[in-house]
């Protein structure tokens, strides 16, 4: 009897938290780096480069967002927007060079305050230490694919293995612990892949080996009909280094940190093709073609490891009875050029880098197979997750909860996205610019050179010809300029003069 009473009281102590975790959803926020929608089969449709079954399954069990745009297409700023729900000029992370002010309000802090177990593993890229997390292990800077170092509250720790798999292991351990403690969790699992220098894991080196990928039609773009800065870029396949391309493998960025076994596998993966490459002198044009094949294969190999590891996370949730009431979000900090315009990298307001992938599932609340076509932005992520957990969204956030879009309601919704890029010239010589995107059109202002671009996205989805000076677009232009003024007012965007003074690198 005494045992029974003891057990009864023990059960009582468990009850409130058990009840809470039954009601509140867990959050599994999976964020990769530079993963563009062209490399996700559910986005690319008939033009798909590869299959991403696990990412696709999130869309099938929930929703895919077709017009989800970042507010500033570069790593650290996009991450700061996600954490704060605010535009770059409000959270202070304008460029990769800034240090994130961790004392400001972030959504993980609010989850923690409301009793959630919070954790972040993998890429952080914000220089200051993570705040608002019970547990964290994040890469210093960009992090490494092989045998990565992790910053922890107790100093640096190096783990042996492939970073995508290791970050998944850490994430699964965190979820296991939260479940054991009967706590709701908010976990950010943030992969390094498929960011440069695209080092595939040992299990992926042979993938696509004998395949020849179709080149983008704009691989040899001459930039006619667009702004005068575009041809001055430094983000062409011809700008890639030997370390990006693994020619020879010993020049690979992470060669020095690999184990002997990893080196052997890496060498075997590239040896034959490198030998053939060095055996004959390619014309400049054929060299670009060769570079494209090397680049796209390595990029997609890295994507494949992300997709496989999302599969592992999903399996964990299913096997532990957590799938139904866990919101899974998959996204990446911006899009990325995969040889379009002859480019790699991001930064431009063109759709390829502007669009972020976004798929989301919550089986307990969302219908499956939804396609959300409204204009959403990364400012909306934090409000959505807070709203789902029943936590009040702070008024200072710029974004809006997307929950009504996902639960069959028809909310009033924005019809314009605002964008601003501040890291100029940066490593790739991209100009300062800002602009607006609507359902059908885009207006970009390069305020340093005083140029503008207007694209008709229905007729010209590849954004190859600016219609800015075309009189047929006079009323469209007037409307877009008005929207730009309104957006700047709404978000209290800084004056161009202020931006140029603050960020323009002084000419020597
Ligand atoms: Ca990125």
Task: Please give a handful of descriptors for the protein shown.
8-stranded mixed beta sheet; 4-stranded antiparallel beta sheet; Alkaline Phosphatase, subunit A; 15 helices; 15% strand; 508 residues; 35% helix; alpha/beta; binds calcium ion; 3 domains; Arylsulfatase, C-terminal domain
In words, what does this structure look like?
It is a single chain. With 508 residues, this protein is α/β, with parallel strands linked by helices. It folds into three domains: 2-198 and 299-402, Alkaline Phosphatase, subunit A, CATH 3.40.720.10; 206-214 and 224-294, no CATH class; 419-503, Arylsulfatase, C-terminal domain, CATH 3.30.1120.10. It is built from 15 helices and 16 strands. Strands 5-4-8-1-9-10-2-11 form an eight-stranded mixed β-sheet, with helices on both faces. A hairpin with a 3-residue loop joins strand 14 (433-437) and strand 15. Helix 7 runs parallel beside helix 10 (284-319). The longest helix has 36 residues, at 284-319. The radius of gyration is 23 Å and the shape is globular. The model is unreliable at 12-21 (pLDDT under 50). Residues 33-34, 75, 195, 333-334 line the site of calcium ion (CA).
